[in-house]
Amino acid sequence: MEAKLTKLDKYDPKLIEEFIVVFAGYYFKAINETFDNSETLRVSWSMMNTIKGRPYPAIISLLLGANAHINNDLPYVLSKVMNNSVAENLLGDLVRIDKLLMRSGKQIIGSFTEQNTRLDFLKRRFQFLYYRPAMYTILYWRIIAWRNYQKLLDTDATLAQIDIRSQKIGNRLLRAARILLLVAPY
After folding, report:
1. Which InterPro entries match (predicted)?
2. Domain range list for the chain
3. Is the pLDDT of residue 34 over 50?
4. Percentage of the chain lying above the pLDDT 70 cut
5. In 3-state terms, what secondary structure has residue 55?
6. pLDDT tens track for 53-84
7. pLDDT of residue 8
C-alpha cells in the first residue's frame, strides 16, 4: 500500500536550491559588511559587533546571529524567491528544516563553551536550560519570519517593521546578557 503524499510531502528541489543560495548570500553579505565595517550593515547584524571582545555569554552571540538571520534576512529571502503558487510547498520544506534544526540543536549547543565557569557548568549539566529556550525561540522566530514574508506580499511598509522588530529583539538579548553578567560575573 503506497502512502498518500500530503502538501507537506511535496517539494521543489530547484526552489529549495535557490532559497539556500539566496539565504546564504544574505549571511555572507552580512559577514563581509561586518568585516569591512560597512555603513550598509543592517542594525540587527551590527549588534553582533557590540559584543565583540566583551565577556558576554556565547548563547547571546548565537541568538543575536539567529535573530539577524531569521527575523531580518529570512522574510527578504522568501520575498525574493517565492511566488504565491509555490508558497505552500516551500512552507512544507521550512517545516522539514525546523525538524532538522531541533535534532541538531543539542549538537549546536554542545559545540561551544561559555567563558564563565558557572554558566558553562549550567550549560553542561542542564543542557535543556540552554537547548529548549534557544531552539524554541528560533522556531518561533521562523514562524514570525514566514508571517512577515506574507505581509511583504501585501505592502512594502512591512520592510521597516521587519528591521525594527529584529532590532528590538537584539536589544532584549543584549539586556539579557547584561543580567546574566550580574548573576554570574566573570
Report:
1. DUF5995
2. 7-183
3. yes
4. 83
5. coil
6. 888 888 888 899 899 988 888 888 888 887 65
7. 43
21-24: long-range pairs with CB below 8 Å, 24+: 22/77, 22/80, 22/81, 23/73, 23/74, 23/77
Cell of 2: 503506497
User: For residues 94 and 147, what is the distance between their CA atoms, to the nearest angstrom?
Assistant: 13
Report the alpha-carbon distance of residue 111 to residue 105 in Å, rounded. Answer: 10
Q: Note whether 177 and 164 are within 8 A (CB).
A: no
Please give the Cα distance from 14 to 19 (Å, whole number).
8
The predicted structure's pLDDT at residue 28: 93
Residue 159, all three cell numbers? 520592510
Distances (CA, A) of 34 to 10, 15, 45, 46, 55: 38, 29, 8, 7, 19
- What is the distance between the alpha carbons of residues 58 and 130, in angstroms, rounded to a whole number? 11
Statement: residue 100 has pLDDT above 90 = no
State the cell numbers at 19: 532559497
HSE value, Cβ hemisphere, 13 Å, CA-based, for 56: 21
Residue 170, class by beta-carbon neighbours within 10 Å (0-12 exposed, 13-18 middle, 19+ buried)? buried
Supply the pTM of this predicted model: 0.78
